[in-house]
Amino acid sequence: MVRSDIIRGHLDSIILRLILEKDRYGYEISQEISNRTNNSFQIKEATLYAVFQRLEKKEVIEAYYGDVSHGGKRKYYRITSLGKAYLSELVKEWAEVKEIIDLFMEGLE
Amino acid sequence: MVRSDIIRGHLDSIILRLILEKDRYGYEISQEISNRTNNSFQIKEATLYAVFQRLEKKEVIEAYYGDVSHGGKRKYYRITSLGKAYLSELVKEWAEVKEIIDLFMEGLE
DNA sequence: AAAGATTACTCTATCTGTCAAAGTAATAAT
DNA sequence: ATTATTACTTTGACAGATAGAGTAATCTTT
After folding, report:
1. Which pTM does this prediction carry?
2. Is the CATH number of domain A4-105 1.10.287.1080?
3. Closest by alpha carbon to A109, among B14, B96, B88?
4. Is B98–A98 a contact, with Cβ atoms under 8 angstroms apart?
5. Residues A87-105: pLDDT tens digits?
């Protein structure tokens, strides 16, 4: 398990990317993250919903209510065009960050 | 300039790496980070000294006073053997984190 | 039909890391 | 003398992450 402090700041990217693929609801996203990372990273529920609030406020995602199939009422999120531009920035930023950290980690093991 | 929020959690690694190379003092480290990253990342003073406190408490670095050549009294830090082991863990963690984030960023631009 | 498991979301209080701002103090340059 | 630079410290505030508790609907098991 990876410390979440180190993923901090990348949650926006991860969640936006998943919503870009298709509209998704919270619980689904949390499952998807666990699956794709083979449980090496799990987003905490409280964190996930905090991210949604932040992203909605920034107007990079929009919510709408879906079915109530098996369990609670699902709240779906879609990405806005502003969101697509934002994600694109985040991808560039990630490339930069990787370079910077690698600069200090290289030659070590 | 990279948002510092996204570097968060990697400061321990960066600083430990620089101290591993040789004993260093705060101001020197801050300059070194700016130089190596071509000013694309600058650690804030307050942050740097907060990191030192954290690392000392964890006993991964030790401090001693040096000269007073040109300016204030320098406080040098050296890495402990516990610190070397800790850094080694952080390097492994970085490899893991990179994989995880890349998983979500791949195919995008 | 009742009980428990699972799905799904919300809210509050707290913790940690980062940082702005302000301060102290010594030396070097003008 | 004054200003710039080097060097460290402290305080208070902020933002993101999270534990924990709560609400509610549906499915499974007995």
Report:
1. 0.92
2. no
3. B88
4. yes
5. 999 999 999 999 999 999 9
